[in-house]
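Hi support team,

I've been running sequence recovery on a batch of backbones for a student project. Most finish fine, but this one hangs at about 90% for roughly twenty minutes before it completes. I'm not sure whether the input is malformed or the queue is just slow. I've pasted the structure tokens below so you can try to reproduce it. Let me know if you need the job ID as well.

Thanks,
M.K.
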């Protein structure tokens, strides 16, 4: 099932509307977004657990979240 803006905000908290639209456009699920958020927030811990790197839609979401985080740092 496609996520709504409320679903995205439930995982990420308040974020830019453009980012919300980009995330929804991926067709990802809320579970995939939650996994991507975990990767974007602390990839070293997940690698330490022996998890494989994110692939597919999760990897696309990680890229979107990481790019957004870099923009906020500037």
């Amino acid at each position: 099932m496609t996520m709504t803006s409320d679903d995205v905000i439930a995982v990420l908290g308040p974020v830019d509307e453009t980012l919300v639209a980009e995330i929804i456009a991926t067709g990802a699920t809320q579970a995939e977004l939650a996994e991507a958020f975990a990767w974007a927030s602390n990839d070293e811990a997940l690698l330490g657990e022996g998890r494989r790197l994110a692939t597919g839609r999760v990897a696309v979401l990680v890229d979107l979240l990481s790019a957004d985080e870099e923009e906020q740092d500037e």
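--
Follow-up from support: It reproduced on our side and the slowdown came from queue contention, not your input. Residues 5-71 form one domain. No action needed from you.
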